[in-house]
Specification:
Elements: E1 6-11, H1 15-23, E2 29-35, E3 46-49, H2 51-59, E4 77-81, E5 86-90, E6 96-99, H3 100-110, E7 116-119, E8 132-135, H4 144-147, E9 155-166, E10 175-179, E11 182-188, E12 194-201, H5 211-221, H6 227-235, E13 243-249, E14 257-258, E15 261-263, H7 266-269, H8 278-294, H9 299-324, H10 330-346
Parallel strand pairs: 1-2, 1-8, 2-7, 4-10, 8-15
Antiparallel strand pairs: 3-6, 4-5, 9-12, 9-13, 10-11, 11-12, 14-15
Length: 347
Amino acid sequence: MSTTQRTVTIVGGGIGGLALAAALDPTRFDVTLLEAEPSRRSLGAGIGLWPAARRALSRVGAWGDLDDETDEEQVAGSLFDIHGRRLVTVAGPDLLVVERPRLMAALALAVPPSVRMRVARVDDPAGLPGDLVVGADGVRSRVRALVHPPAAERVEADYVALRGIAARAEPSDIGEYWGPGRLFGLAPLRDGRGYWFTTHRSALRPEPLPVQTVLAEARERFGDAAPVARRILELARADDATSATRMWTVPAMPRYVRGRYIVIGDAAHASLPNLGRGACDAILDAVSLARTLNGGGRLATWQARRLPVTQAARVTASGIMRFALLDRGHEARDRTVAALGRVGRAR
């Protein structure tokens, strides 16, 4: 190691951790990445990527293996009530959904060979070496307690989520279906397939949740839902592409940096998934942090840019979830959504 290099220890080898390892200048930083379960990179269904995240991936050389996702035209999506009544249709947003294993593989390939990848569980990050210790260790982050102790513990939501891949997604079915205590969504993937997801209130515990058990509960809860939701849930199987999790968030964070400790991604601002920004913000956190460090910039400047936007998204996502799953007043909700759609079409 050069005497001019600074040492960086990254805790967590998920999307944010890999993106940071790929983006840090290997001539300036000696990087070690610690991940407890690297086999999880091959698991999961879909990840939505907005343009800013795709540009960030391109800057670190991780988009080239994924750019075939752009071959197909954007498909318009709709908001429906839970029974399938269309409330509003909007032009296809510039959001591309990629399969999580493909994204993880592309990020791993972009990590320079100088980065030391270690399989290790970190329970006491205070004892880790490094000029900087970056917590990219998700909603269960141990590093977060060193940055802001009052936010050490994650916060349980009332919901469970299912995610999976459907063999076929009809364009007319693309969108989200909102109803009392439950939500279903379907987004297009390449080759005509679809990424689907559900959310419903549930008392199922503890984690890890058996996928088959959550599927059975979801089939019951969505028994009167739109035909596409019932069909996809009936065909879904407990495999590597289907996941079941409780939803967790992180308390408000007034800082992401304290001394040599930094948190990014879900470790800093895990929220409910209604804005499709979780992976995107982890990528943007990581790549912007690397740019700051590579250029000799101040961590306070990076924090001032990233903290307000990500904390605002955290609050907004929770509000949208409550609105989408209203038990009462859903007629008012539907009228509001329809009105917003009319405004959007008029712009």
